[in-house]
Design brief:
Distance between the termini of chain B: 41 Å
Number of strands of chain A: 12
Radius of gyration of chain B: 23 Å
Number of domains of chain B: 1
Strand order of the largest sheet of chain A: 6-7-8-3-9-10-12-11
Number of strands of chain B: 2
Largest sheet of chain A: 8 strands, mixed
Number of helices of chain A: 11
CATH superfamily of chain B: MetI-like
Order of helices and strands of chain A: EEEHEEHEHHHHHEHEHEEHHEE
Largest sheet of chain B: 2 strands, antiparallel
CATH superfamily of the largest domain in chain A: P-loop containing nucleotide triphosphate hydrolases
CATH class of the largest domain in chain A: Alpha Beta
CATH topology of chain B: MetI-like fold
Distance between the termini of chain A: 37 Å
Largest interface: A-B, 39 and 26 residues
Structural class of chain B: mainly alpha
Helix content of chain A: 25-40%
Shape of chain B: elongated
Oligomer: heterodimer
Number of domains of chain A: 2
Order of helices and strands of chain B: HHHEEHHHHHHHHH
Number of helices of chain B: 12
CATH architecture of the largest domain in chain A: 3-Layer(aba) Sandwich
């Protein structure tokens, strides 16, 4: 088996605050193969965004990668100085951010920002760079791209801006794109357009994709694998079909159960009781135990990641092993 | 080309909206008019002044301390009288205004550039560099401006360029502190993260991305500081450490006339004083209005 494109191993990112140390990412291990789409799912504050940012070393103080390794294409990224990481940013690994209103600089024209992104890594004549920018806009389905290059971000709709952000991310044909909730701020019809544009372009270029989201329904359509995060840890990982149809971890099960579905119209949605734990004082043992219906004495010690059939793994003492379909 | 015509009106309307809001205050519009007139007068001084007060050959010591409206032998009227050197006061005021405004403009522009750069670097880089820059700013701002300026000029000596240097050195700190505050807010925005994720150079992120977005509050500070620079220059010249005696600014003219105030020769200090007052007041009124527009909390 060839080495994966990206292999994160036991990554720990801590934020040293006055109130204490927040373990935003607490031992995350992930692997993404070339061309693979990985869905990284979890509630707000579960550490999925921090995981994404730490790959490119974009964690700001007081946050710091305190342990673990991030191997990309055979090279270690964790702990590398900023100047060396810049070599990867936007070229081998690109990012798409959540809020298209804020991800483009409001005072610079679209064309300026795209040309800037190109010339950050390549010496290109400005005319050639502009032509490339225009082609990139056309590729993400923006009509009359030449004219859009002269527009300011505020003159475009949210969906358009996110298309521009995607075009910028794909300018250097990166091997990996990290998309941090790129559709959360958009309305549903635009969401699906953005997803399909992204899916098509990544499939065509063989780009691997880490899609960070809290929207299971959205990710179920196009991810190959899924990793579910809770309180800074990955609690379940596996092929998306298997995970969604027969989740092993009670938390994953809770997430799926809280999705509205057509067959249960009128019935109350299942909720996960309680709130996510405060990241400053995580409960000892399994972080999900206080909210878990299956918790018992064993859960006072933290469960390790256990492998299960079909390339799946879960971090739980009492996984739903028998075929218990989600009700 | 459609995009160009798309873009242009959008920018125009933004400027237009700013202007429309500004126009709501009649006082501010009048003040802006006064600033404009004074600027034109100052710029055109060499062509409209009846006499060149810097050219000693044109001055006649026999005409000294004439009251306003006096007539020279060749028929020229000293509308505002003459000072103790026989200078036509109207001409001296026009030239003095020119010098005062030039000094203030140069000091503001330079101070703004240095302060903005320092503040942006402090906010973006953070850590020790931030602490170092901001402590210098704190120390600087904890002394009275006039004191620092006096010490600097005592060391540097007299001269228009030295006054500018002194003003820049006492004023950059205001800009640095202001822009650091707004840059710290902007720095957390996603477009900065996005720019970093695209491997843009730190200099580019700081000055092309962060600076324009963090700049607006500085417009207000700059207007207020420009007025302050005029009065500070006048103070320094009044105290005799500013511009040289041969090229009087408004402050020096006032100082010259001050000694004759009590002997009834009021005009030598009075008219330059009025000019100075009007200039500072007008600029401050414009600055206040801009501050009002930019800060929604101040709006009535």
């Amino acid at each position: 088996m060839p080495a994966p494109l990206l292999a994160i191993d036991d990554l720990e990112v801590h934020f040293a605050l006055r109130e204490g140390c927040v373990k935003a990412v607490d031992g995350v291990s992930l692997a993404v193969d070339r061309g693979e789409v990985l869905g990284l799912v979890g509630e707000s504050g579960s550490g999925k965004t921090v995981t994404g940012l730490s790959i490119l070393g974009l964690i700001d103080p007081p946050g710091r990668i305190v342990g673990g390794s991030i191997r990309f294409d055979g090279a270690e990224l964790a702990g590398r100085p900023d100047a060396e990481l810049r070599h990867y940013r936007g070229r081998a690994i690109a990012m798409v951010f959540q809020d298209p209103m804020m991800t483009l600089n409001p005072v610079l024209r679209i064309g300026t920002q795209m040309v800037e992104a190109i010339t950050a890594h390549e010496r290109v004549a400005s005319r050639a760079a502009r032509a490339r920018a225009s082609a990139a806009l056309a590729a993400v389905g923006i009509a009359s791209p030449e004219e859009r290059l002269d527009a300011y971000p505020h003159q475009l709709s949210g969906g358009m801006r996110q298309r521009v952000a995607i075009a910028i991310a794909l300018l250097h044909r990166p091997a990996l794109v990290i998309a941090d909730e790129p559709t959360t701020a958009l309305d549903v019809t635009v969401q699906s357009q953005i997803v399909s544009v992204m899916q098509a372009l990544c499939a065509e270029a063989g780009t691997a994709l880490i899609w960070i989201t809290h929207d299971l329904a959205l990710i179920s359509g196009f991810a190959d694998r899924i990793a579910v995060m809770y309180a800074g840890r990955i609690v379940e990982q596996g092929p998306i079909g298997d995970v969604l149809s027969a989740p092993l971890h009670p938390y994953t099960r809770g997430l799926i159960g809280s999705l509205p579905s057509g067959g249960r119209r009128g019935a109350p949605l299942d909720q996960i009781p309680g709130l996510p734990p405060s990241p400053i004082d995580l409960p000892p043992g399994c972080a999900f135990a206080p909210r878990c219906t299956r918790a018992d004495a064993a859960c006072a010690t933290a469960p390790g990641m256990t492998s299960h059939a079909r390339g799946r793994s879960a971090r739980c003492w009492h996984p739903h092993l028998a075929v218990e379909a989600v009700s | 080309m459609a995009a160009l015509s798309d873009t242009a009106p959008a920018r125009e309307t933004r400027l237009l909206r700013l202007w429309n809001e500004f126009r709501d205050s009649r006082v501010a519009v009048t003040a802006l008019g006064v600033v404009a007139v004074l600027t034109v007068l100052a710029a055109a001084a060499p062509w409209i002044a009846p006499q060149n007060p810097y050219d000693l050959a044109q001055l006649s010591i026999l005409d000294n301390m004439l009251p306003p409206g006096s007539r020279r032998l060749d028929g020229m009227i000293y509308w505002l009288g003459t000072d103790d050197q026989g200078r036509d006061l109207l001409s001296a005021i026009l030239y003095g205004l020119r010098l005062s405004l030039l000094v203030a403009a140069a000091a503001t522009a330079l101070g703004l550039a240095i302060g903005a750069a320092a503040g942006i670097v402090a906010a973006y880089v953070g850590g020790r560099i931030d602490a170092a820059i901001m402590r210098i700013v704190d120390i600087q701002l904890s002394f009275p401006t006039i004191l620092i300026a006096l010490i600097l000029l005592a060391v540097l000596g007299k001269g228009v360029d030295k006054v500018v240097v002194a003003l820049v050195l006492v004023q950059w700190a205001y800009y640095a502190r202001t822009i650091r505050g707004s840059a710290l807010v902007e720095r957390r925005r996603e477009y900065i993260e996005a720019a970093r994720s695209l491997a843009l150079s730190p200099a580019r992120i700081m000055f092309r991305h962060l600076l324009p977005n963090a700049f607006p509050p500085l417009i207000v500070v700059a207007t207020v500081q420009a007025a302050h620079a005029i009065s500070l220059e006048a103070t320094l010249s009044f105290l005799g450490v500013g511009v040289p005696v041969t090229e009087p600014s408004l402050g020096l003219l006032i100082a010259n006339g001050y000694s004759y105030m009590l002997s009834g020769l009021y005009w030598i200090a009075f008219y330059p004083g009025i000019a100075l007052l009007v200039a500072i007041l007008a600029i401050n009124l414009v600055g206040d209005r801009i501050a009002e527009i930019m800060n929604p909390r101040l709006r009535r």
